[in-house]
Amino acid sequence: MKAIWNGQIIAESNDTKVIEGNHYFPPNSISSEFFKPSDTHTTCPWKGVASYYTLEVDGKQNADAAWYYPETSELAKQIKGYVAFWKGVAIEE
Fold it and tell me: How does DSSP classify residue 26?
């Protein structure tokens, strides 16, 4: 699977985990030069507290377009540290 934004592949893996329709990419599959830490956090009742990244590609930013769970509940331990996308990021095979 590939995550693509602004014409750039920002993550690629054959080992994503699909939860609630979202592909979660392993941490080592993201191109970290495009990911900037965000101060945004949200809470999922069953996964835990999510942290976010802002994407930056060719001078354009997509605020909080990627999220991950640095710590998870026991139910979501399979996605600990994995990164998922929204806000116009295309997920393709």
Answer: P
Return the DSSP state at 80.
Answer: B
Q: What is the pTM of this model?
A: 0.96
Write out pLDDT tens, residues 10-69.
999 999 999 999 999 999 999 999 999 999 999 999 999 999 999 999 999 999 999 999
Burial class (CB in 10 A: 0-12, 13-18, 19+), 62: buried
Count of domains forming the chain: 1
Q: Residue 74: which domain range?
A: 2-92
* CATH for 50: 2.170.150.40
Report the alpha-carbon distance of residue 83 to residue 40 in Å, rounded. Answer: 15
CA–CA distance, 51 with 42 (Å, rounded to integer): 7
